[in-house]
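Postdoc handover notes: sequence design on the structure in folder B. Input tokens:
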């Protein structure tokens, strides 16, 4: 089997998403996806990755990943190139599953759990405006989520105050205002709802310590990305000053960036995103690395139905899973428009898709929408076989 074309799809209505389709000479098409800053990922996909991978065997996932990583490592890999590689690698797993008629979790080695625990990130989209809801009455939102079978929610009530001081100082009045939705949730549903606080690395440690001290009485499930991941020692010091577990970080790409985090015991929970970090196999390696330290894993999942499906298969497989993030405002609005994936929540858990590969099919009408932009790289590619290391300036080598 050979890769004959690599295709990217975008829709103006969903500007955060880049969908990738990998075509083969056997007619199997694999689906992948990445999210955010997609113009850079798209350029890397067609400009750098496609010439390396066209004509290659899509079932050689590990070898192809190493081949690409060896090339992109030269110029700083953990950005657009790795997001593009993640989307493409997910599509290769989808091809393998379809080739062998097996769901992704079987290819990974099977399930450790039948259902995947989830929390809802309270973003708004279309008719589901969970972001506006927690700003208006977070208690009412909590009741709505519980009615939908969701027992954990994530909000970010302190971000809004960071702009004035560039995250260097938060006043007591601002802390009090940030606590308002947390109090509303506790007043409305008590401890029936778990609360996660996203910090989006907006603050320095001094400010975070003031925020954390105020949150202590409210039985907070976790604090996510309290400081930028480039300050692991500061994050560790903050963690030593609170009983609330810290999660980090979606900003760490590949196992090599996660390694130092684990070696330093920066946070008791780690987070990674399979459509940013290098892909499905890289997520499994990160999970295994974390498991050797006794650290659980959260799967970051704020993209489309392809990423969601990948996270469900990985969540079913990974033994040290803490939660998989999900977004009600996405899976109840545009997921059914883009795909056949059905998402239901029961008792705080999500089901694992069936079918071969990821178990996701794009809707045919999606491919003829007037707001779609398509780019295709096709042909034999430029790489003659595969290489690792060596002299990349040699005339006969692909550069």
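Designed sequence:
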């Amino acid at each position: 089997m050979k890769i004959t074309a690599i295709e990217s799809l975008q829709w103006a209505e969903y500007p955060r998403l880049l969908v990738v389709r990998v075509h083969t000479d056997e007619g199997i098409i694999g689906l992948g996806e990445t999210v955010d800053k997609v113009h850079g990922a798209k350029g890397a996909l067609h400009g750098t990755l496609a010439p390396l991978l066209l004509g290659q065997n899509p079932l050689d996932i590990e070898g192809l990943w190493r081949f690409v990583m060896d090339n992109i490592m030269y110029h700083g890999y953990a950005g657009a190139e790795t997001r593009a590689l993640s989307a493409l690698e997910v599509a290769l797993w989808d091809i393998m599953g379809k080739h062998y008629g097996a769901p992704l979790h079987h290819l990974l080695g099977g399930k450790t759990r039948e259902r995947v625990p989830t929390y809802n990130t309270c973003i708004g989209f279309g008719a589901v405006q969970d972001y506006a809801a927690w700003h208006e009455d977070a208690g009412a939102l909590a009741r709505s989520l519980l009615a939908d079978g969701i027992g954990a929610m994530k909000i970010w009530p302190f971000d809004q105050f960071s702009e004035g001081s560039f995250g260097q100082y938060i006043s007591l009045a601002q802390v009090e205002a940030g606590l308002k939705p947390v109090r509303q949730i506790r007043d409305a549903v008590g401890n029936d709802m778990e609360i996660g606080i996203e910090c989006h690395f907006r603050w320095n440690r001094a400010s975070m310590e003031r925020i954390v001290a105020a949150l202590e009485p409210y039985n907070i499930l976790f604090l996510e990305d309290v400081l930028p991941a480039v300050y692991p020692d500061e994050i560790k010091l903050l963690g030593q000053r609170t009983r609330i577990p810290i999660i980090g970080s979606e900003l760490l790409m590949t196992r090599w960036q996660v390694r130092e985090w684990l070696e330093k015991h920066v946070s008791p929970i780690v987070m990674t995103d399979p459509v940013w970090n290098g892909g499905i196999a890289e997520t499994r390696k990160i999970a295994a690395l974390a498991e050797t330290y006794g650290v659980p894993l959260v799967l970051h999942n704020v993209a489309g139905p392809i990423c969601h499906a990948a996270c469900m298969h990985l969540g079913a497989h990974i033994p040290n899973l803490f939660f998989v993030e999900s977004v009600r405002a996405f899976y109840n609005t545009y997921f059914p428009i883009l795909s056949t994936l059905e998402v239901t929540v029961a008792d705080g858990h999500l089901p694992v898709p069936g079918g071969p590969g990821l178990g996701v099919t794009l809707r045919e009408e999606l491919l003829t929408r007037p707001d779609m932009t398509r780019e295709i790289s096709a042909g034999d590619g430029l790489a003659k076989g595969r290489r690792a290391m060596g002299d990349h300036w040699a005339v006969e080598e692909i550069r």
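Context for whoever picks this up: Residues 253 and 277 are 4 Å apart (CA to CA). Don't rerun without checking with the PI first.
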